[in-house]
Design brief:
OB fold (Dihydrolipoamide Acetyltransferase, E2P), Rossmann fold, 2 domains, five-stranded parallel beta sheet, 8 helices, rod-shaped
Length: 302
């Protein structure tokens, strides 16, 4: 008698539950290695383990799905009930309950990109927490003397920024704090840089900047931890990320948003430039007044 069979009779082989489940597992997992499936999320939950549990359903059927924590932490958005998605995974059979499910490796929302959805979700969350409220934003100091610029030291953004500063008011001291502005480690480096500036550098303003790029390129500036670090900063933060049409979470959280790196430089020196012009105007008026007084006095003496 073969292992797993109780016996054979005229009805054929009679399986044990374990043996039958094992063969079903081998059949399903061997046939459906990696598959793509489209469906609507329902019964989504995240227990303390950090795994994502859900069901994927359509009008006629549903299947359980799980995304383990190591994969889930790479998702840029948070799944929600009612969300239509495309998922990639493999079929797995959980033998103790005799259930089959999809073990997910990838999840993407239908109709909108994952990053765009993640942006809107985080924007809504932080807005509800008051991170973007105008009343918590700090004013920029009048006539800043020392500025910390958190950016890539080799990018176009810092070149544009310095060009404007040097042309309009070269006596401002600029301290460049180098960070990655793109990639997996960029957000952590930006947060650390903001903390270092607050802890170790005596500056009047922080400028957080980089040049333009795609939503993915700019993603480090859309991370929650960057927004929280900006709000926790005791030094006012100007965010100048991308082009004028780009808006990032850091822009919304910052004390002031500049549409471009060059615009950030102009904003910082506009007070000095205005003051310089005003002093010139007052000097001219004073000179004219003195000349007029001298003429009048001379006329009286003569």
């Amino acid at each position: 008698m073969c292992p797993g069979f109780l016996f054979e009779n005229q009805k054929g082989k009679i399986y044990t539950v374990s043996r039958l489940t094992e063969e079903i597992k081998e059949l399903l997992e061997g046939t459906f290695d990696f598959i793509w499936v489209e469906g609507e999320i329902s019964n989504f939950r995240i227990p303390t383990s950090g795994h994502y549990y859900m069901a994927l359903k359509d009008e006629r059927a549903q299947i359980r799905a799980i995304m383990f924590r190591p994969q889930a932490r790479y998702l840029k958005f948070t799944p929600e009930d009612g969300m239509r998605v495309i998922a990639q995974g493999r079929i797995g059979v959980y033998e103790p309950r005799g259930e089959y499910q999809i073990i997910l490796d990838y999840l993407e929302p239908l109709g909108v990109g994952a990053l765009a959805l993640a942006f809107e979700q985080l924007k809504k969350k932080l807005a509800a927490q008051g991170i973007f409220d105008e009343k918590v934003k700090k004013p920029l100091p009048f006539l800043p003397q020392k500025v910390a610029v958190i950016t890539s030291p080799t990018g176009a953004a810092i070149r544009d920024f310095l060009k404007i500063i040097h042309r309009r008011f070269a006596n401002i001291e600029i301290i460049i704090v180098p960070v990655k502005v793109q990639g997996d480690q960029a957000a952590a480096e930006i947060v650390e840089a903001i903390e270092i500036v607050n802890r170790e550098l005596d500056v009047d303003v922080i400028v957080l900047t980089r040049g333009g790029g795609s939503l993915e390129d700019l993603w480090a500036f859309n991370e929650e931890k960057v927004a929280l670090a900006i709000r926790a900063s005791k030094v006012p933060v100007v965010s100048a990320v991308g082009h004028e049409i780009d808006t990032t979470i850091s822009d919304l959280a910052a004390d002031l948003r500049a549409p471009t790196p060059s615009a950030a430089a102009e904003i910082l020196v506009v007070e000095k430039e205005s003051l310089k012009n005003r002093i010139g105007q007052l000097g001219s008026r004073l000179e004219m007044s003195l000349r007029s007084s001298l003429v009048n006095n001379n006329q009286k003496l003569s």
